[in-house]
Amino acid sequence: MIVDESAHCVVRRIARDEINELLLMCAEHAGYERAEYDPSGKAAALERSICEHPVRLHVWVAELHDTLIGYAAATSEFSTWSAREFLHMDCLFVREGCRGARVGAALLAAVVSFARARGFAQIQWQTPDWNSEAARFYSREGASATTKLRFTLAIQA
Q1: What is the pLDDT of residues 29-58, one digit of tens each?
Q2: Which of 2, 40, 104, 132 is 20 to 30 A from 96 (CA-CA)?
Q3: pLDDT tens profile 73-104
Q4: What is the C-alpha end-to-end distance of the chain, expressed in Å?
Q5: Closest Cα to residue 87, out of 98, 99, 72, 102?
Q6: Angstrom distance (rounded) from CA 101 to CA 53
Q7: Which of 79, 81, 75, 84 shows the shortest CA–CA distance to 119?
Q8: Contact 73, 90 (CB under 8 A)
Q9: Euclidean distance between CA atoms 132 and 54, whole angstroms
């Protein structure tokens, strides 16, 4: 799908029956970020975290002509330094062919609106350091970059 600059997508909360489509977009997102992604067993876990109370994961989707073309996901976190909650935007992804048409801006605006409505003072996220297009987009939207290394440590169950 190629999205025309004048196209207007609808951004809304994800519906329970769209979890499998979210998994497909997660796989596309991982591929774009040069990472591996295995969807095995993730549909049920995502459904629980998105649809059951208390909601752990907030997900918005961008829809155009009955097709999901992007998503953003966020969780509430707590900062020791500021002694306040902040919203951690885990993902913001727009499908290929749909980028550059302000779909990402619409998704980000939904996340910002959610954060404001719930009294969060800050939203934090990361993007790969090689993703200059994302860095330009976030800068245009008013965000500023910080310099940190992100580490992961696998814990075997």
Answers
A1: 999 999 999 999 999 999 999 999 999 999
A2: 40
A3: 999 999 998 899 999 999 999 999 999 899 99
A4: 41
A5: 72
A6: 34
A7: 84
A8: yes
A9: 36
